[in-house]
Amino acid sequence: MTFSIVAADREREEIGFAIASCCWDAGQVCMARAKVGAIASQAQGNMAFLSQFFDARAEGLEPAAILEQFKTSDERIEHRQIGLITPDGPGLSFTGDQCASWAGHRAGDDFACQGNILVGPEVIDSMGEAFERTGGRLHERLLAALVAADNAGGDRRGKQSARLLVARQGAGQPGTDTFLDIRVEDHDEPVQEITRTLGIVGTLMTILGLLGEAAEAVGEEKESALDRLRAFLEDKRQPRYLDWWESLASAYEEAGLIEKSVEAYRQYLSINPAMEPILRESVSRGGISADVAEMLLPGVS
Fold first, then answer.
1. CB 109 within 8 A of CB 91
2. How does the average pLDDT of the chain come out, rounded?
């Protein structure tokens, strides 16, 4: 059905998976939880294995013991393919002898790759090798593995969907651990689309990092940090970056750098002139200072 990788970054305490398939919603056969583990249950996947894996982990069972439970409880286990990883142990894969050819797997200290109905073993070999030789964050290594497998031929039947997810405790929205979750459905080149989207995510992470530096800095260091953000945003005039221009303008204003704030707001309006009424409303509510308003929107008080 697909090719997938489950993997862990011990140093950053991240865990996740990447998967692609000719089928719709490839990611539904995978699950990851921060500080617990990740699982892929594919081929003729048993979706019950997903919750069972985490229940067993809560009871203190290691992947080898959990796999044995799967084997003894499922009479169709030889039609299944499973990949398991935990934060503190090596990857573990299983390929039943009734999985459609070519099917196989490869596991290492911090990953497990598996795939079926592939063009050949080179798909899984390329996937594992790419993960092992790639540096950087877990999502970067997962992407490299996914791209390598796709370039090696991937799913024999074609392409439709892909997903990449990374979990880290407290890394998501309040109360969640989802650091990153990108999914693509019904696309001619889903892995390429994951790559494109992750490029945008990387840009947003850089912006957040620069804003964080500015928030912690004082005096000239704060201005320098905001100027680095301004330089980074220079060629980013698409609507997706509109809010970051506003954040920059607001941060300049809070730092007392009025002229730089006005210039950033002008760039904001150049991206979308329709936002001028919103800025005028903000002035009336006191969200933008009179000094900035006088230079940016003459006649508004």
1. yes
2. 93
Tokens of 123: 């798909």
Side-chain half-sphere of 96: how many Cα atoms within 13 Å? 22
Cα 1 off chain centre by: 22
Distance CA 212, CA 25 (A): 35
Q: Which residues contact 3 (CB under 8 A, 6 or more apart)?
A: 19, 20, 21, 113, 114, 115, 118, 123, 124, 127, 149, 154, 155
State residue 57 phi and psi, 5-degree precision: -65, -40
Q: Where are the beta strands (DSSP E) in the chain?
A: 2-9, 14-21, 30-33, 37-43, 80-86, 89-95, 104-108, 111-115, 161-167, 178-184
Nearest one of 25, 32, 54, 5 to 166, comparing CA atoms: 32
Q: Which two tokens stand for residue 147?
A: 């791209």
Over residues 142-160, mean pLDDT: 94
Tokens representing 53 are 């894996």
One of 3.40.630.10, 3.90.870.40, 3.60.20.10, 3.40.50.2000 is the CATH number of 2-198, namely 3.60.20.10
pTM: 0.86
Cβ pair 26, 20 in contact under 8 A? yes
Between 247 and 290, the higher pLDDT residue: 247
